[in-house]
Design a protein that fits this description.
Elements lengths: L6 H15 L5 E9 L9 E5 L2 E4 L4 H17 L2 E4 L17 E7 L6 H12 L3 E11 L2 E13 L2 E6 L5 H9 L6 E5 L3 E8 L4 E5 L3 H12 L3 E6 L15 E4 L2 H7 L6 E5 L4 H11 L6 E4 L3 H13 L4 H4 L2 E2 L11 H16 L4
Parallel strand pairs: 11-12, 11-14, 12-13, 14-15, 15-16
Antiparallel strand pairs: 1-2, 1-5, 2-3, 4-5, 6-7, 6-10, 7-8, 9-10
Helix pairs in contact: 1-3, 5-10, 6-7, 7-8
Length: about 350
């Protein structure tokens, strides 16, 4: 399963760069280990700047503890590994989840300004790479740590910034290409956290009618980068689609052909006619899209599939199309349909289908 990359992820990294470039005191908390039942997964982040926070490491008592420790780290310009208390016997924080978390809290981010700059540039260009944090730990105490970054170009390492990355880890990154953050221990004292930096998940909505608009709005709310396509100028209007990152008014097939549709892209086809739906599906069926969904009755879907097969599209390829689209929640209104569609999109990238 590829780690979901949503707008909050890129927002945090951009805010970190902004704080570092502006020499503003801040601390970044990263969940580097999560075992058993925990309120957040490995890779979750929280940025503390002044009295405000961005992101979350789980909310509730875990977050309250983390923020307390992060304030100390900011004031002293230090870093630590924090293990939230999860015992019912803890009088101040009687948590009952029973899991174990390790959270790296870095209160001296300016030390890593070069790495942060590289990382955010890769994010902006929809590139790929790995953030690597090498830590020396003794009895749970962080003795020292360094940030490194490995940029990818295609299937190869394009740039390695930082020294001392174990060959064994580089081999793991090169051949296994983990899609989720990992924590590796080398010997008794060396911990290495590696987090894949991947392109932001993108939702392409083909059709800006009532349902398309709601799909785009809900998609934006859950953190997807949204692009809406419609050939009608009165519908492809940014002022009526303020939640979309881009609105394209153009021939649907031409617009789809100009976009990079890859494994981080989700395509939802909700145009105003069967003919346009078929054209849109034909334009994206051979792409690497992670998800393709098309609205329509079973009869309509069957006829479109038959037409595409007659044109030479392999039947096997059509099996990955979600049509009729959406989770079965009894949706009727455009907004209910939008929620149904995005629920299915979420299920697809959380491997819940």
């Amino acid at each position: 399963m590829v780690r979901a990359v949503l707008k909050d992820d890129t927002l945090i990294w951009n805010k970190v760069r902004e704080c570092v470039d502006g020499h503003r005191p801040c601390a970044l908390a990263i969940v580097i280990e999560a075992v058993g039942s925990t309120p957040q997964r490995i890779g979750a982040k929280l940025l503390l700047e002044g009295g405000s926070t961005l992101g979350t490491v789980g909310g509730g008592m875990v977050e309250a503890q983390t923020v307390e420790v992060a304030r100390v780290c900011v004031n002293k310009s230090v870093s630590c590994i924090f293990t939230p208390r999860t015992s019912e016997k803890d009088e101040k924080y009687p948590l009952r989840c029973g899991g174990r978390m390790s959270i790296l809290i870095d209160g001296c981010l300016e030390r890593h300004s070069h790495i942060i700059g590289m990382l955010t540039k890769v994010i902006e260009s929809r590139g790929k790479g790995f953030l690597i944090v090498r830590m020396s730990v003794e009895d749970g105490e962080l003795l020292n740590h360094d940030w490194m970054f490995v940029a990818l170009r295609g299937d190869n390492f394009a740039d390695v910034s930082g020294e001392g990355i174990p060959t064994q880890l580089l081999t793991t990154l090169a051949y296994k290409r983990p899609c989720k953050p990992i924590l590796k221990r080398f010997g008794e004292r060396e911990w290495i956290y590696a987090e894949p930096i991947l392109p932001l998940f993108r939702l392409i909505v083909v059709g800006a009618g009532h349902v398309g608009r709601c799909v785009a709005q809900v998609g934006s709310l859950v953190g997807l980068e949204v692009i809406v396509i419609d050939e009608r100028a009165e519908y492809a209007d940014k002022s009526t689609l303020p939640f979309a990152e881009a609105v394209i008014c153009d021939d649907i097939v031409r617009a789809l052909n100009t976009l990079s549709i890859d494994e981080f892209t989700f395509v939802v086809i909700v145009t105003r006619s069967h003919e346009l739906d078929e054209m849109a599906l034909e334009a994206c069926i051979n792409t690497g899209a992670r998800y393709i969904g098309m609205m329509g009755s079973k009869l309509k879907v069957r006829r479109i599939f038959e037409s595409l097969i007659a044109k030479g599209i392999e039947p096997q390829k059509l099996k990955r199309v979600h049509a009729p689209i959406g989770m079965r929640i009894g949706a009727v209104t455009p907004m209910e349909l939008g929620i149904s569609v995005i629920a299915e999109v979420i299920a697809s990238y959380r491997d819940a289908l």
